[in-house]
Design a protein that fits this description.
A two-stranded antiparallel sheet has the order 1-2. The termini are far apart. It has a single domain, classed as Up-down Bundle (Hypothetical Protein Ta1238, Chain: A). The chain contains five helices and two strands. Helix content is 59%, strand content 3%. Strand 1 and strand 2 form a beta hairpin. By secondary structure, it is mainly α.
Length: 179
């Protein structure tokens, strides 16, 4: 059965502790935002299956799947489970960021999102990742490696967006700040 009716009162239980908390508790905000990010990364993964980059091929689909797997561990940690990310998970993201940065000319100013569909999806995922990071910090249930991972995650999504735009167009628009 997919419903229990237990949440009808506005509370929900955590996996390990069976503790019931109000659904607007910071823990559920963090879990919900992490779930949203994981689902959105799935959308990105589905989109990049069709994105081919002749200049600098990367396995973006595998990178995104790794992110999604790690997010399940983060959710388990915040929910009180016995799993946590480690510094090696952070290192994987840092190495991927470094590799991607070497493939593109980094922008020297802000960029306007939407140069390509894939770059826009990555930019949107980056904003969700930043929100997830803030929510995880507010929940006060994340270890230092998890906080570092969430911080690097948005950087990786940023460079993936720049790489996707580079692959499809080679350039991105910068804001003119004209009003």
């Amino acid at each position: 059965m997919l419903y229990t009716r237990k949440g009808d009162t506005g509370s929900s239980g955590l996996f390990r502790t069976k503790e019931r908390l109000p659904k607007d508790h910071p823990i559920y905000e963090a879990l919900g935002t992490l779930d949203e990010l994981g689902a959105f990364l799935g959308l990105c993964r589905a989109r990049v299956r069709t994105l081919k980059c002749d200049h600098d091929p990367i396995d973006a689909e595998q990178i995104l799947l790794y992110m999604q797997e790690c997010l399940f561990v983060v959710q388990a940690e915040i929910a009180g489970g016995d799993r946590s990310l480690t510094s090696s998970n952070v290192t994987v993201l840092e190495q991927t960021i470094d590799r991607l940065e070497n493939l593109i000319e980094p922008p020297h100013s802000f960029v306007i999102s939407g140069t390509t569909e894939a770059s826009a999806l990555y930019d949107y995922a980056r904003t969700i990742a930043r929100r997830a990071e803030r929510a995880a910090i507010a929940a006060k249930r994340s270890a230092p490696a998890t906080r570092a991972y969430l911080n690097r995650l948005s950087s990786l999504l940023y460079v993936l967006a720049r790489h996707a735009a580079y692959c499809e167009t080679g350039e991105e628009l910068q804001p003119s700040y004209l009003v």
